[in-house]
Amino acid sequence: MKKIECILRPGKLEEVKEALNQCGVHGMTVMQVMGCGLQKGRREVYRGTELTINLLPKVKIEVVVKDSLMEDVIGLIRKSAMTGQIGDGKIFVSTVDNAVRIRTGETGDSAI
Amino acid sequence: MSRFALKLKLLFLMMFVSIPGLAWASDGGGIDSGDTTFILISTALVMLMTPGLALFYGGMVRKKNVLSTIMQSFIVICLISVQWVLFGYSLAFGPDQSHLVGAFSWLGLNGVGQEANADYSATIPHLLFMAFQLMFAIITAALITGSIAERMRFPAFLGFILLWSTFVYDPLAHWVWGVDGWLRNMGALDFAGGTVVHISSGVSGLVAALVLGRRKGYGTEAMIPHQLPFTVLGAALLWFGWFGFNAGSALAANGLAASAFVVTNTSAAMAALSWVFAEWVHHGRPTVLGAASGAVAGLVAITPAAGFVTPMSSLAIGLVAGAICYLAVSVVKRKLGYDDSLDAFGVHGIGGMWGALATGIFATKTVNGAGADGLLYGNAAQLGTQAIGVLATVAFAGIATFVILKLVGVVTALRATPEEEDLGLDLSLHGEDAYPDIMSGSLLRGDYSPAAVPASSVMKPGISLK
Q1: What is the pLDDT of residues B384-397, one digit of tens each?
Q2: B32-411 in CATH: which number?
Q3: Is 0.90 topped by the overall pTM?
Q4: Quick one: residue B8, left, alpha or beta (phi over 0 = left, psi -120 to 50 = alpha)?
Q5: Using CB atoms, which residue from B224, B225, B329 is nearest to A48?
Q6: Where do the DSSP E strands lie in B264-317?
Q7: Which residues of chain A have a CB within 8 Å of the CB of B331?
């Protein structure tokens, strides 16, 4: 099993969710996060005091998939999340030792 | 005709019969029902300004301090309401003592009744005049909280505000509005409280900010308003309530009230535009916070002039108010380095001073025969009189605030500890969280005594209190 964590532009969440659904990935965890990378921050002004904000809002999706699905899922996420501009985000992949479905006690691939 | 229609018709007839009846009833004792109705409503409008101010300020602080900021304004409503009926009103408006303060003869509203007091307002009940003035005493004390936000301890705040209202506001109100008060006798014009309300609160706020010191992290950490929609709603409520504040200060439902209403709205609008454009030119962004702040600056500046100037003059007053208050908060404050958290001095102090002087420039007897002509109408001396009023207010409010804070500081610590500031005053002083993300914690049963709760375990959601 692989865990795929992807950090996306907030506006791309729906497209990526739709794409994941189409390739049979129905379970996911979504978080609102802040982060910085290559994308430059922005400027804010409050009563004449200027601030540089370099943490920008992003959305993070975590999914755990069977090893065989990994390449497809990564391809779909890239395809649906890409705009070609700096700030499109990142995908991180790691190996997961096990998964347990709390309700039934199933483990491994059948639990995800 | 159905029975229902007949009933409606009867009801309609009764309304017509009863309205003249009300008018007759009010003729006795010189009380005018129109004036009384208008001032009752104006009093309620001015009351609403303080919760509006709570939102205006509450939106500008960080989210860990929003409740403590709102609490300061709210508790002032309660504290001054009690102080005023017990002795505050008597000190401010009671029979004159040496032109400086009112006598104690109206303690507990003794002798303040349903009849009019012709010295102040011949056509409304004296009790109503008292209540109207109470709302001014409340908002003035609450305005100071903008300078001390996010760092003052609550017990010290209560003591400070009670003493400040008693020893600064009440005498000052007497000087300017009380019969035989020395500034009133000198001919200083202050229609609705430019000196008494705005200069006094702004200058006292600045002194309090200097005595308390800067917030922890000021100048290095970003201290960004956490909820600007609150602030805009608060500014709108202030604007709305200000119609009662300024038009109501005519103390009658008449042409002067209408004139004050129009110049109030015009100045607020013009100042909002001028602040936004100043900011736009200076920083490249027309901000909503700037629009809200500018409107308040314009309202402050027109306050002393509201009953003495024409609508065209109010445009000029607003135009200058928006620009100079913007400069005060964005340039002067940064250069001088004081931490007037929410700019009570920058907006109310500076705007109030401009308004008081502008009254000496733009006042005309064509608007109000009981007033005076200003510089532009051939009476340069009025500007000098206004300047004396400004200087006296600045000196008195500034020195008295310093002394009161030092006295309170002897009894109890003025300032929250660095740990309390880090955690936020909502949790550390009030044991509440405005925006709990996760509802968690177990109920404490039985023993609620302070000893049962370890001092370190404040009521933070997510921490079990057992």
Answers
A1: 999 999 999 999 99
A2: 1.10.3430.10
A3: no
A4: alpha
A5: B329
A6: none
A7: 48
